[in-house]
Amino acid sequence: MANLKNAGISGELSDFGQHLRAIRLGKGMTQDQLSASAEISKPYLSNIETGRIVGPPSDEKLHRLEVALELRPGELQARADWLRVPLPMRQLVKLVPTVRRTADGAVDLDATLADISGNHASGEPDELADFLDDAPPAVVPLHRVPLINRVAAGAPMEATDLDYPPNIADRDALVPGELVDGCFALRIDGDSMWPMYQPGDIVIFAGNQSPQSGDDCLVRLGAQENFSTTFKRIHFVDAQGLKQADGQYFFLEPLNSQHVPRIIPRDEITGIYPAIWRVSAVVRAGAPHARHVAI
């Protein structure tokens, strides 16, 4: 098991490069011809093919290679996306007897990792259990976070289920990384925080963490607005809207300039929860893939 856990990405990058080289030769193209057609330097192309790169090429370069080689859109990008998945997760997926997939054929990491957790909890003596038992604490931890509602990234909207019992919800979101107690997840509804947050993104909020000026936060308003919630970047300000560390007002800033900011007194806000993770869908060639981003 030691060799598996200490293996780097270099071998997989070499496999990726050999795959690209085989396609190029199959098309009867030289490195000079492909580099010229894809507008990529020949030395860099040579480094890709021999695995002498530190990571997968950018999506832009991969797209140009796909066009030059007349490949199906997303063919090389899908392989590169797999290499961008954290190494411990790739290793775990390779050890799972049955990898769960979505309807479009993409690896369903949430379902697969849920299977892994279930098999590990059963105590089955297998290579996967050995890997999990021997893995160092730094291996990407996954946490289940209750997904309890949608939050408006636009006009405030009612959200009455923030009072769910801890860790109880209709469904969960799986999130890597260290989390603080009391976290919960909401799905974005609206475009006021575009382009950083897209409608449908899942955002993880810290329920027991004090916000800092400049944080992106779920803000729960008071009785005068029916305890509705909104998702905005917050700043501490004075009554004139000037930033002030101990200001008694919150400036609620939408990232989308088409929406209007607001200034609200602190005493009219009944809850404020900073965002700490974002789970967004990366849509490529019509197929969405989950991407976890720390905030």
Features:
295 residues, alpha+beta, 434 Repressor (Amino-terminal Domain), Umud Fragment, subunit A, 3 domains, eleven-stranded mixed sheet, elongated, disordered N terminus
Structure description:
With 295 residues, the chain is α+β, with helices and mostly antiparallel strands. The chain folds into three domains: 2-84, Orthogonal Bundle (434 Repressor (Amino-terminal Domain)), CATH 1.10.260; 90-134, no CATH class; 142-294, Umud Fragment, subunit A, CATH 2.10.109.10. The chain is built from nine helices and eleven strands. Strands 1, 2, 3, 4, 5, 6, 7, 8, 9, 10 and 11 form an eleven-stranded mixed sheet that branches. A hairpin with a 6-residue loop joins strand 6 and strand 7 (228-237). Residues 1-8, 135-140, 156-169 and 284-290 have low confidence and may be disordered.
Output the CATH class name of the largest domain.
Mainly Beta
**Relevant CATH superfamily of the largest domain:** Umud Fragment, subunit A
Approximate shape: elongated
Oligomer: single chain
Strand/helix succession: HHHHHHHHHEEEEEEEEEEE
Give the CATH architecture of the largest domain: Ribbon
Strand count, sense and barrel status of the largest sheet are: 11 strands, mixed
How does the helix and strand content classify structurally? Answer: alpha+beta
End-to-end distance: 33 Å
Count of distinct strands: 11
Number of discrete helical segments: 9
Radius of gyration: 23 Å
Tell me the layout of helices and strands.
Layout: H1 2-6, H2 10-26, H3 31-38, H4 42-50, H5 59-68, H6 75-84, H7 87-95, H8 109-121, H9 127-134, E1 142-152, E2 157-158, E3 171-176, E4 184-189, E5 202-205, E6 216-221, E7 228-237, E8 249-253, E9 262-265, E10 269-284, E11 287-294
Parallel strand pairs: 1-4
Antiparallel strand pairs: 1-3, 2-7, 4-5, 5-10, 6-7, 6-10, 7-8, 8-9, 10-11
Helix pairs in contact: 2-4, 2-6, 3-5, 5-6
